[in-house]
Amino acid sequence: MSTGTRALELLGLLQSRRHWPSDELAQRLEVSQRTLRRDIDDLQELGYPIVSTRGTGGGYQLGPGGSLPPLTLSEEEAAAVIMGLKEIASGSSATSGDAAISAMAKIVQVLPERIRRRIDSLRSLSIAPAGDPRANITDVVALTTVALACRDRDALRFTYRARNGEVSERNVHPHRTVSTDALLYLIAWDLERADWRTFRIDRIDDPTRTRQKFTPRTVPFTDPVAYVRDQIRSTPARYAIHATVQAPAQRVTQEIAHYGVVDPIDDASCEVHLPADSLDWATFCLGAIGAPFVVHGPPEAVDHMRQWGRRLIAGTQRTPLDPVRR
Known about the structure:
Blueprint: H1 3-16, E1 20-21, H2 22-29, H3 33-45, E2 50-53, E3 59-62, H4 75-89, H5 94-108, H6 113-121, H7 140-152, E4 154-161, E5 167-180, E6 183-190, E7 195-200, E8 204-213, H8 224-234, E9 239-245, H9 249-256, E10 261-266, E11 269-276, H10 279-287, E12 293-297, H11 299-314
Helix pairs in contact: 4-5, 4-6, 5-7
């Protein structure tokens, strides 16, 4: 039983009757007295008014204000809550994203299997924001499995699909999840490669918690979001787009953020180096700047953007309206 699940059961037992002898409570939870005391301390730190008594007949009871009515959700309500949290977790705010992932992990693990299947089936209904071709919807159950493994320091096993399509089996010690650029990532220590790795969570299939506990390693960063972005930039991209943009470097930098490198030419123009795996995304990224630009290479990027241009022009051509049928 995971720490989180055990804490929920412990709270349920404490609410079910006025007083629990410590030995009986530990036996019901199938833990040692030491583990029980640690769990009680953790709940007290969270603000639950658990009163302990020592000596003969000593034990625990939930004080005033600690009893809450049970949370019951219909399938529709549960789906709305989880999918709402999912959209927050996929947003641009790293702080609210972490909070949303944590909340999902706590809620999903106590939902009945039938409702979890209903929620998982809704992921295909979520639509990426217009103009953001990189946004993805992650398997909610897989995401919460990863988040719980990070929280409980459980080793994790999963199948990973790399950007080049290569599939591999991974065994990792998960550190934390990170939300950035409409995508979710896992930072973990890869046991086979003996090094830190960053995984896109939407490319993780069948994550399984092995229940093998581990001692966390010292991480090689202070800012997890900046670390993930550095890892993304250092990964070789399929295309290296080179363009000149007729706009100040400061403005272009604000538009493309950390996706590429902007070098000023003069006060009114700059060079842009944009690594990309998708030529569609690169075309949109440059076009969204809203300034004249010239793409210098690679040749396939030039050809791709020309095709885009032809399609866009064709889409604006006026054609005679079909006659109205009576």
